[in-house]
Structures are given as C-alpha cells and as structure tokens.
C-alpha cells in the first residue's frame, strides 16, 4: 500500500492530469445527456400539451384512438370519392358549339349545333336551324360519339369539337 502511495506522490502531476481529463470527459458527457434530455422534455411537453393528472399511457391511448378514427374517416372519404368519380363520368362535361348560316339568303350565322357529352362520349346534340319564317330545333342522342339518326356536317363538327375538349 505504501508503494502505491509513494508512486502516486512521485507522479502526482500525471495523476492529477488524468483525473482532470476524466473529469472533463465526464462534464462533456453530462452536457450531452442534458441536451438530449432537454430535447426529450420539449417533445414530452408538446405531447402532454398542458394536461395534468394523466400519465403518458393514457395520452398515447387517446392519440391512438384519434388516429384510428381518422383512418376510418379517410377510408370513408376514399369510398365517397370513388362514387363521385363514377358519377362524374356520366355528367355532361364536354361541349362543342358550331354556329353557321343554314340558308344562303339569311344574314349572319344564326343557326347552331351544340354537342353535350360525358366522359364516355355519350350525350346529345341540339341543332337549331334559323329560317326567315320560323326556327326549328332538333335533339339527337349520342352514344359513343355517334348517333343512330343521320347527322349533319355541322352536328358532326360539334361532336368532334366536344370530344377534343375532353378532360
């Protein structure tokens, strides 16, 4: 034992230097742990959000319930969105208009053909022919871009314009 004390006394500068170095390393370690703990504490306070008397398990359970509820709502919204998308396929959303002069003795382009189609090119074409004495209006159904009734050149042009304006 006396040999150990004698060795420490003879090398006291080295012993103190090593102890100081260990103390410095320990201080750096404590500061790093303190920084990590502060970060954890900040996150914990954000989760707790002013609640008192509740433990972390209750809070996380509450959050988990809210997340599960949101997942159910998202699934419901996805289903509703699919239904709406199916409905919009049937909505008239493509329009083609052609104005023309049906009779050469008439003034301006007062006659017209309007094609209204859905995404599947189904719908109808309305044609209004303006004459000197009267105006006649026709409507023809369109299925897959064609009609079972004969179409005029202007009606075909209106259908083509509507088909090109598709989404």
From TrEMBL:
Residues passing through the membrane, by range: 13-35
Pfam families tied to this protein: DUF4446
Keywords: Coiled coil, Membrane, Transmembrane, Transmembrane helix
InterPro entries: DUF4446
Coiled coil: 67-94
Name of this chain's protein: DUF4446 family protein
UniProt lineage: Bacteria, Bacillati, Bacillota, Clostridia, Thermoanaerobacterales
């Amino acid at each position: 034992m006396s040999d150990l004390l004698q060795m420490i006394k003879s090398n006291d500068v080295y012993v103190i230097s090593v102890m100081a170095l260990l103390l410095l390393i320990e201080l750096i370690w404590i500061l790093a742990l303190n920084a990590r703990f502060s970060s954890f504490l900040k996150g914990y306070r954000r989760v707790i959000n002013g609640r008192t008397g509740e433990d972390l398990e209750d809070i996380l359970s509450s959050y988990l319930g809210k997340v599960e509820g949101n997942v159910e709502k998202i699934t419901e919204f996805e289903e509703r969105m699919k239904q709406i998308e199916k409905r919009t396929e049937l909505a008239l959303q493509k329009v083609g208009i052609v104005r023309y002069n049906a009779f050469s003795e008439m003034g301006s382009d007062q006659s017209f053909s309007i094609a209204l189609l859905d995404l599947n090119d189904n719908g109808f074409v309305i044609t209004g022919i303006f004459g000197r004495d009267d105006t006649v209006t026709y409507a023809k159904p369109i299925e897959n871009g064609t009609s079972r009734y004969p179409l005029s050149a202007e009606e075909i042009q209106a259908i083509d314009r509507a088909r090109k304006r598709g989404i």
